[in-house]
Amino acid sequence: MSTTTGTTTEKTRAPGVESTAEPVPAPSPAPSAAAPTPGTAPSDIRRVPSSTARVHRAVRRLPYFLLKGTTKSAAIVALLVLWETAPRLGLVDRTFLPPFSEVARAWWELAADGQLADNARASLVRSFSGFGLAVAFAVPLGLLIGWYRPVADLLGPLLEVFRNTAALALLPVFVLLLGIGETSKISIVVYACTWPILLNTISAVRNVDPTLLKLAKSMDLSAPRLFQKVILPASVPVMFTGIRLAGAVSILVLVAAEMIGAKAGLGYLINASQYNFAIPQMYAGIITISAIGVAFNQFLVTVERRLSSWRVPADS
User: Fold this and answer.
1) Does residue 296 contact residue 251 with C-beta atoms inside 8 Å?
2) Distance between CA atoms of 63 and 69, rounded to whole angstroms?
3) Contact 186, 126 (CB under 8 A)
4) CA end-to-end distance (rounded Å), the chain
5) Using an 8 Å Cβ cutoff, are 84 and 99 in contact?
6) At 229, is the pLDDT very low, low, confident or very high (cuts 50, 70, 90)?
7) Which of 84, 134, 245, 293 could form a disulfide with 193 if both were Cys (CB 3.0 to 4.6 A apart)?
8) Which tens digit of pLDDT belongs to each residue from 113-167?
9) What is the pLDDT of residue 176?
């Protein structure tokens, strides 16, 4: 022990003399928020608060989800209630508009014996085939027309002629040239779906923010990189507007085409039910088409959100 240390110790112990250095108490361990109990693993201690917080968060947001779900379904529920009560009260002739419960019963019978699944499968194959071919053809063509002015000058007049011709007006032409088989039905879907996708893609490319283009060009990006990094991402929202419109058109046009010279499909089911005066089955086919259209649109909305995740939400 050094001399200085010994002197300091003596001064501290001397009676009647105040110590210049007060002893510092040893720091006590900080209390733990979740002290482990015997036999409890640390992972379990961490898991319990997180699970509890998740449950409390879900309970707090439950009224919001209930209110949101009620708001979105109120109009549909009101329509179904009106559909059920109007024929029973004699407001409409139940021969031509049966109550919704009878339509639901007919839908279940068609689903049970396999007719609904077979006809829906035939329609979906035709519709999705035509829709996929239209996307594969119209998106690249729209990008070329929107980005390269010579291509637009060359194909512009021809596109103006065909886009103003209704698809159903050309249905007899497709049937005469391609027959009444699957080729004509898929071709009419391709034709009808091409125009919403093509026109929206051209508009999306031409309306890209000029500021983004100037910033990209100031970074000396090559034309392919500029197209990949700026043009394509900025065009996705407007492009998907056309794709969603084409998704609805693919089902509607196909149903109309299936009413002429088809032996399977939802359009054939609706037409045959009308001829046989099976009105509940006819409405069951219409409801099935509506449900397929809503589900397909929601799928496209999900894909759009995934591809345009870079966008800032409007409410942020």
Assistant:
1) yes
2) 10
3) yes
4) 68
5) yes
6) confident
7) 134
8) 888 899 999 889 989 999 999 999 999 888 888 888 888 888 888 888 888 788 8
9) 85
pLDDT surpassing 50 at residue 181 = yes
Q: How far apart are CA 293 and CA 297, in angstroms?
A: 6
What own/partner pairs with CB < 8 Å and gap ≥ 24 does 283-292 have? 283/98, 283/103, 283/106, 284/103, 284/104, 284/106, 284/107, 284/110, 284/116, 285/110, 285/116, 285/119, 287/103, 287/107, 288/107, 288/116, 288/120, 289/123, 289/251, 289/255, 292/120, 292/123, 292/124, 292/251
Q: Which two tokens stand for residue 269?
A: 């089911």
CB 279 within 8 A of CB 98: yes
The token pair that represents 199 in the structure block: 């026109």
DSSP 30-48: PPPTTPPPTT--HHHHHHH
- Take residue 247 and report the two structure tokens written for it: 């998704």
